[in-house]
Amino acid sequence: MPTSHGETSTMLGDILLHALRDAPDSDAVISADRCWSFQDLATRASQIGLAATAACPPGGTVAIVGENHPDWVAAYYGVPDTGRILCFLNHRLSVGELLAQIDRSRASLVIGSSVELERLRAGLDARASIRRITFDDELDDDRLGETTEPDRSVPGDARCSDDPAWLLFTSGTTGAPKGALLSHRAILASLNASQVARPIENDEVLAFPFPLCHVAGYNVPRLHQRRRPVVIIERFTPQALVELSETNTVTSVSLAATMLSDLLNYLDENPQAVERLRTLRQIAYGASPMPADLLRRAHLMFVVDLTQGYGMTELSGNAVFLDAARHRQGFDADPSLLRCAGVPGPGVEIRIVDVDDADVPPGDVGEIIARGPQVMTGYLDDDQGTADALRGGWLHTGDLGRIRPDGILEVVDRLKDVIVTGGENVSSLETEEAIRAVCPEIASVAVIGIPDPRWGENVCAVVTWKPGSATSLEEIARRLTGSLAGYKIPRHLVVTESLPLTHSGKVAKAQLRSWLSAEPTLAGPRR
Known about the structure:
Oligomer: single chain
Distance between the termini: 49 Å
Number of helices: 17
């Protein structure tokens, strides 16, 4: 795939090889305590590739877990470069959830922070065949075995761009997260779409506080395509963002709604800090809907461009973009634009369809489906889930939307019952199953998302009790701790006599959302 530098990348690792050739001493990854050049990054990627080769057969899996760290970036390249698959694990998951995903991915090697590997130690000890590497480990010959060069071939078949490079687990309409397999080709196509829709400036420095375990991490190789550095933030705080931005002349930043809200609140309380962000020219956002009033606050606080990307894990990143010009139009003349997702990037096709996958009339609401080279290969060990998601050759996003007369996509609602809280996806069915397992007092339960000005949505459990039984929200949360990630545990509890049902006997969650939207006090304060 041609880039702005004229070279062709067919594998993810080509990006690093080209940067190493052109700018070995240029900054590639910056964190609070180090700065890696492209040469440094390539060296570490090669070390991790050696470890992957020693631990895993061709086509095998390496899992990685921990807060943001330069080794994440090295693994992005180093593991797929050897014909192995890098499995992203979210450190916010419980131990049980992490071990389940390690098992499902069939990982032979786990790379992680010392904190996370200690948390997983007992479970990994019980899986004696799985090797471990801690971030910053000095990988000596004993750790790498007999191997002296990363294995970049697959016996019997040359590596190709359709090989899987990354594996990310994502919540869907079923209880267990699905493992989306992203090929080299798909990731590179996603990079290309974003490069055209949101070009990288010659002097750009991106601050990236999103967790690198999310698909949003595709922005890192996007900067590296242009030989530009990424400033990674171990754990987002407004103070850390301000300090690293000032120190490293940051020109752009990617933020979720909660991050932008926290940053604006911090700047309201510390107005002198605005000057420390004077080099900032662009704020890109995504991961969850952005309230219009939050966008207006940012518009008034900064003299910067605002851009949005709409995408998902199954699209290897963003596929639809609302550019800075349309944001300015939204602020000045057409506020409805601020609710829009934008227009498809190069190579991306979008349709709006009904339940039979027939196109709806122009302007009508239906499911958003997408087609293009950046669509995932499929779900790990889930032929039926893959067939359902990719039926007819189109990715069914589970989002409801419409195409406006001006050709701009507007996302109206989610067809799938996935709750987005603080940029994290929560499967309502997964949380419902966990509640049923620990709360015998409950006769029936439905988990839905209710609006929250800071987090986008909160997890709310609507329950009916068995006769003579009841328990508190705090007790439910206590019982769930350790089996579910904290963000999946309900923040609100609503008790009702019965749950509304559809004609087919399913809980009518749309009715529950409408009911609580009309009577928000029923949900009580956030836990």
